[in-house]
Amino acid sequence: MADARANRVAVFLHGGEYDRLHQGCAIAAAACASGRPADVFFFWFALEALLQGRLAEPRFGGREDVADRFESGGYPTAAALLESAKASGLCTTYACTASSGLRGSRPDWVSELVDHHVGLATVREATRGVTDRFYL
User: Fold this and answer.
1) CA-to-CA distance for 113 and 61, rounded, in angstroms?
2) pTM over 0.85
3) Which CATH number characterizes residue 32's domain?
């Protein structure tokens, strides 16, 4: 089991800024495209962005130059990258129960958007032995 977990990639999304969300989803999609399983964990403001559907809305906080290049370059949205990772069958998504509770989200609604709605003890167990971890 340790060898299988060592091959996994864990992406911990905390911040709600679009660049962080996009980068995390890109890391998961790249891992899955190369045949590596990826676990994507949504906490706090990243979870809020997921629940509000903002992964599909590129926003760069006043950086119109980046927004223009993003659009004209045809870059995939964070939502599209996450969907690609999930479509591979190698990506599992998690939402933190404390984060969703603190923002007042109904557990059944959260569970519709992720594979697992879990507490930190489960997060810790799910990532035991994972060496490639990304915190955004």
Assistant:
1) 26
2) yes
3) 3.40.1260.10
